[in-house]
Amino acid sequence: MDSDDELWDLYADAVIECRIDDRPRCLRGPNADALPCDAPMFVLTAHNPQGLTRDREVNIEAERALERELVVIGVTCWSATGRSRDASWSEPGVAVGGFDRARACEFGRRYDQLAVFELTADAVHVVRCVDAAVVRTRVRGE
Fold first, then answer.
1. Please, what sign has the CA dihedral across residues 70, 126, 90, 114?
2. Burial code of 75-90, b = ≥16 C-beta within 10 A, e = fewer?
3. Handedness of CA 48, 58, 91, 88 (dihedral sign)
4. 29-60 confidence digits (pLDDT tens)
């Protein structure tokens, strides 16, 4: 298995949580809650472009820029976090409704991301930003 496969598998197995009305909701993982909007829903981040760790303050400012951009265009979004099952990795982002795959990947590319998450009622897809290809799919409630 090459490192790309390992990375896509790590993303595909992530637990994704968000805050709605100041309450935590599981979007992907055991006992996943219903999506708070019509599917598909996407999870985006501006942290650690191309998967490379960078300064915390730079990540925070990039995330704020992403969130401001989404607010300006009137997109409904919620604070979200993706993390590995063993909690050795986590990354904040935003969950958004009202997007399609092409638009989510456009934002991913704008913030130099490798992938975005696409959530449906039953599945989570890891979507590569460069070409909008689904590279992994898992059951959302696992």
1. negative
2. bebbebbbbeeeeeee
3. positive
4. 998 999 999 999 999 999 999 988 999 999 99
Query: Using an 8 Å Cβ cutoff, are 44 and 107 in contact?
Result: yes
Average pLDDT over every residue of 11-28 = 94
The token duo for 10 is 């790590």
Q: Which of 119, 110, 120, 114 is nearest to 133 (CA)?
A: 114
Q: pTM for the whole thing?
A: 0.94
**Which tokens belong to 108?**
């991913």
CB 66 within 8 A of CB 94: yes
The two three-digit tokens of residue 119, written as one number: 């959530």
**Of 7 and 43, more confident:** 43
What is the mean predicted confidence (pLDDT) over 102-121?
Answer: 97
User: Is residue 40 reached through a cis peptide bond, with omega within 30 degrees of 0 on the bond before it?
Assistant: yes
